[in-house]
Every structure is written in structure tokens, then in C-alpha cells.
Design a protein that fits this description.
Layout: H1 2-22, E1 24-28, E2 35-36, E3 52-56, H2 57-62, E4 66-67
Parallel strand pairs: 2-4
Antiparallel strand pairs: 1-3
Length: about 70
């Protein structure tokens, strides 16, 4: 029984970590930028003249960013 409980807790822990990491997106820290990107090496970020920053999806949408067309 202890083994099953331990296995369950380890599985749950891995799922929680995965959920957190999928909420991370990348944006160009420029006043004219309007998109967020799921991958740091997205083609849509190649023209970014400013710093590329890592933020949560919630923060990106609150800033008015929408998903990059290359990510669809």
C-alpha cells in the first residue's frame, strides 16, 4: 500500500510540474510587439530588436498579446 501511495505522489508531482511549464511563453519586450510565442526559437521572434522575455501565458494575455501565427 505504501508503494502505491508513493507511486501516486510521484506521478502527481510530475503532472503538476508539467502543467506549470506549459503556461510559460516568450514575448519580445518591445512597445510594438503584439504576439506571444510558445517556443523561444519561434520564427516570429527572429526580428525582435529588444530583449526576449519569459513570462506566464496569463501575463501575456493581460498585456494584450495573442498567439503568434507561426505557432498555430
Amino acid at each position: 500500500m505504501k508503494t502505491l501511495l508513493l507511486l501516486f505522489l510521484l506521478t502527481c508531482n510530475n503532472l503538476c510540474i508539467t502543467t506549470i511549464s506549459t503556461d510559460t511563453v516568450y514575448i519580445c519586450d518591445s512597445s510594438g510587439a503584439k504576439k506571444y510565442h510558445l517556443r523561444q526559437n519561434c520564427k516570429g521572434l527572429q526580428n525582435c530588436q529588444q530583449k526576449i522575455i519569459k513570462i506566464t501565458l496569463d501575463q501575456a494575455t493581460r498585456r494584450g498579446r495573442t498567439l503568434c501565427g507561426y505557432e498555430k
